[in-house]
Amino acid sequence: MLDALKFFLFVLLLLVTILLNQHVTSKQSAELDLDLLWHIQDTKGVYVIPNQTLPSGVYTALEQSMIIGSLLEEYNDVNTSWVGQQDWIYRANLSCVASEYEYVVLTLHGVDTFADVYLGERLLGSTDNMFVRYRFDVKGQCDGSTNELRLHFRSAVSEARSKAASWSNRLPVLPECPPPVYNGQCHVNLIRKMQASFAWDWGLAAPSMGIWKPIRLEYYSSALIRDVVVTITGTADDLWLIEVMVHLEAGLTEHRVAGQLTFKIFDVPFATGTESTLTVVNTTNERGELAVGHRLSVRKDAVQLWWPNGYGRQPLYSLYVQWEDAAINSVKQPHPDTLQAETIVRIGFRTVRLSQERTDDGGQLFYFVVNDVPIFAKGSNWIPSSILPERSYDPSYVKFLLYAARDAHMNMLRVWGGGLYESNLFYRLADELGLLIWHDLMFACSMYPTEAGFLRTVRDEVRQNVRRIQHHPSVAVWATNNENEVALRQNWYGTEANFSAYYEQYVELYVRQVLPEVEANDPSRPVLLSSPSNGDHPSKDYVAANPQDPLHGDVHYYNYFLDGWNAAQYRGGRFVSEYGFQSFPAYTSWPEARSYDPLELTRLINHRQHSPLGHEPILTMIRFNLPLPASSPDAPDATYWPDLIFLSQLSQAMIVKTETEVYRARRLAHGTMGALYWQLNDVWIAPSWSSIEYGGTFKLLHVWLRQIFAPEHLVSFVNERRQLEIAAVRDTLGADDRWRIELRIHRYGTFGAVDRRTYEEVTVGPNTVVTVDRYDIYGHLAHLGLKPSDHLVLLAAYRQSSGQLVAENFVLLDKLKHVRDRTDPTVTVSVVAAVCSERSNLTSVSLEVTVRVPALFVYLQLTPENSTLKQCQFSDNGFLQFQPIRTVQLTCVDAGCRNKIQSRDITVRTVNGLLKS
């Protein structure tokens, strides 16, 4: 009777706790999220913010309480900098009963960054790494009484400054501060926090604090399954071998565990001879952790292959793992659920290999082979979806961005090393969408310390995150850092005077610490020591003489003062993992566009331009190829910024298009097998290299990427010999295809072609590039008496068998600023139909674009008055219109279907209009 009463009281108290400040996430009620009714205040008690929900950050809480304005508007990155320089306290009440449980563990999955953790008056411990999971034994305080759980946060800015002061007699950790134009904070490389939190050349300083991942109370009496590491390899006898490492936890100290692990793959039988259960009798380590390995196998014909986007489907299978304590079967237990644990991870059956075979030119290739098929990697670089970590895991926005990558025919994203280890949702979506992941560890553009405490927390960070992420079939390769090898070798930060000392620190951190942790916890994938690097090209000292060697590994290529529209400048490397160019966000994306005069907007845009080169690369590229706006930035008129933004986006799109298409066409000639432009997304409205603005608006580049990265593409450009080079590019598999390719020379200002050239029966094999022709286009024009400045080339490929259009493209034969025909095309836009779904909150508008004569790069934008509409995308934009009428679809997120888009809501710009002026 007493036992039943105790259990009843426990359940009652548990339910009260759930109703007050947590909800159940486990069907066995062994895990409770402590996510409700948190109170936040500064240490002086000036600001008190009640009733907060996790995940949370101080900036977000202050914004929601309207104590500060939005961090992302006007000059608030500077105006609110005081927030990150103060200390803050998070507090919530906690009541629990633990008498029926062997272990009650408080687990903090993500604390940003420095906090002392108290339960009641007891100091549980401290946190100092936002990427690490912390666990504390609280069983002794789960007696039914109510205790206050408090996290005393210390400013990351102050902590970094304090650590730097303690380094006064040691080798400085460089760079000590970002460039002044960043408006950033110093010494971020001394702490384990998102490196971009202290500002970057594309982002603001937001030295966040808070609880950015769940805090959970874990109740159990045997063992908990923390991670499942999965390595899948094919065998010669038509089997998939699945090596599973189950990471168990039993409290926080050494314990004896005995029980049984059970394995199952839903809807897939194991191969004959596979044992689906494993008896475990062992002792955990001093942290209460135990790794248990087991081998499973399935027949290859029982499952389907997982493929990258564009090469096939992405079937995923659920691997179920259950733990049962031996006591369940030996003695009748009143609460057997406390002796069980289970988890499910989704796996995919594929092989991924990084091939680096030697070549005749003394170099090596560098490409990914998936299921024995060489893959040309097409994609981008991913930065966190928000500068505030507590917002970076927003499911709808992460999904939007990844779908946008998939829809642009990308098959790879590089998770950049200055950001975050991403959410489980991110990797799950990458699995579902076929987006291979190149994954940096979170070290970027810096030297780093190697004192014992720093190395200890780094090992924990790498171990925990690799184990969590590793089972996803999308993950293809790890790199221990971003650009730190090349920074050391090329003396980016003044390390040359003490090169030997900085070199020793580099080797200690990445070669002796990070690399072994990655390899120990993911034996299935290659690990690169840096990006860029020479790959596995032998180097005795781990720091290559030229980490940017185009004949080895991967390269990062940026050139801001050669004409980026000129294909002849691009030579490429084996794999180009970063390249790109800046542009400005759309005029309508600036909230201030409606209230600021042009000069005020100039000041704001200048403030948000964090590149030390300023706007000059953008302006230089426009001067090379396009007419600049008539007014100047010092005295801008009302059209200056709308015109300049249009030209910047057109120039960015042309540069990335040209460079990418050269890389795709030279797949065989140069061995280039990867093109990942910088960067996919943004964290605020500011000049940057992104193709998608913060909030979801596509720049012209992202609209164009649907063609640039198309699986079947027709590439053409003027090469280094002034020849028109034409290549048929095909990434798809299957039988040979035959294309008919038409080349038409058009005069600007007229719809009809003045000359044609046709290539019949061009055989295009699967997963390859075919050079169709290289011919003297300028000699041909001279023979016809035609001037290059008056003409361009339009190309189209059709399937020979059906006449179906396969691909289209264009080639400019001279700079647009030299075009002499400046006839006004008189562009008109009409709304043909508009439909809004209240269920999906999507409005879709069919537009008809009409021109009197051909229009050059028609740029459509909504007016600023429609800024309440979100994620508005045109099906085509920045296009050449060499037909009188063209249909374009506009889709927007319109909550409640309140907006009625009309023709007057859409502005139009063309290069013709700027040439005329």
Automatic annotation (TrEMBL):
Cellular component terms (Gene Ontology): lysosome
UniProt-listed Enzyme Commission number(s): 3.2.1.25
Signal sequence interval, chain numbering: 1-26
Sorted UniProt keywords: Glycoprotein, Glycosidase, Hydrolase, Lysosome, Signal
Organismal lineage: Eukaryota, Metazoa, Ecdysozoa, Arthropoda, Hexapoda
Keyword Glycoprotein: yes
Catalysed reactions, as listed in the record: Hydrolysis of terminal, non-reducing beta-D-mannose residues in beta-D-mannosides
Membership in a protein family: Belongs to the glycosyl hydrolase 2 family.
Organism for this UniProt entry: Anopheles darlingi
Domain Beta-mannosidase-like galactose-binding: 38-213
Name the UniProt record assigns to this protein: beta-mannosidase
Keyword Hydrolase tagged: yes
